[in-house]
Amino acid sequence: EGRVEFHHVGFTYDEGTEAETKVLEDVSFVAQPGETIALVGPTGAGKTTIVNLISRFYDIQKGNISIDGYDLTDVTINSLRRQMGVMTQDNFIFHGTVRENIMYGKLDATEEEMIAAAKAVNAHDFIMKLENGYDTELKARGAGLSIGQRQLIAFARTMISMPKVLILDEATSSIDTHTEMLVQQGIQALLKGRTSFVIAHRLSTIKNADRIFVINHGGIQESGNHNELMQKK
Ligand code: ADP
Ligand code: ADP
Predict the structure, then answer these.
(1) Quick one: pLDDT band at residue 3, thresholds 50, 70, 90?
(2) CB of 130 within 8 A of CB of 66?
(3) Nearest CA to 131 among 122, 140, 120?
(4) 48, 50, 52, 57: which to mutate for ligand 2, most atoms within 8 A of CB?
(5) How far, in Å, from the CA of 130 to the mean position of ligand 2?
(6) For the ABC transporter domain, which residue ranges apply (predicted)?
(7) How far, in Å, CA of 63 to CA of 29, rounded?
(8) Gyration radius from the chain CA atoms
(9) What is the pLDDT of residues 116-154, one digit of tens each?
(10) Number of C-beta neighbours around residue 232 at 10 A
């Protein structure tokens, strides 16, 4: 469960205009179920574009992407979001309560179901802390939250959803040091046994990844684990 395949995927921003930018030329790979793939490479190389295609945040222009053999263009966005957890810098927060935001995709869940879901991933204390830490105003209006608070909510949401595929942009710079530690522990638990794509900034993530993709010049320039890539140098 959670096998992700790219076949000759290409992507161009603003195609056919003066601003046209070809970012991905011809990207092919198979991510095995449970594999953690670290995406590294220079700014502007196309790492974010790759993960935005997997999450269907962008439409696929050229080539095919599939999850467990199902072509992504045949899968509805809603069913895709049930299988996929996405944590990016601009996390999706809507004008609901903190709890509603955490329970995104499970809005009809009862209080008991939410507590059970939280306990199943050892996130119960984390989520209670999160909820109780906000004043009434913030509790009522998720959209008024700081970037760091949004990241924590997105993290709690991802934990609860127990996704098959996890997408993580590691630039969690807005989280304070203490919370950062909490989140890092949770992230390690989330990565285990789950196909994951991490836009990696931390050396520890890069070292622990099953495979590293060096993204550059429109494609995967090099791939291998940390030891393999170090030997090539
Ligand atoms: P990375 O994540 O590796 O830094 P991105 O995938 O964000 O790279 O960006 C790849 C290239 O696409 C960059 O040259 C960037 O300027 C361009 N780009 C990214 N987003 C857009 C956009 N919305 N419109 C036009 N160009 C974009
Ligand atoms: P809408 O169609 O409602 O505008 P978008 O596809 O534009 O939704 O996505 C809105 C936000 O949701 C984006 O910031 C995106 O990063 C985030 N997002 C996309 N996929 C997921 C997901 N599977 N889980 C959580 N957030 C997601």
Answers:
(1) very high
(2) no
(3) 140
(4) 57
(5) 22
(6) 4-233
(7) 12
(8) 18
(9) 766 666 666 666 776 666 555 555 555 566 666 777 777
(10) 7
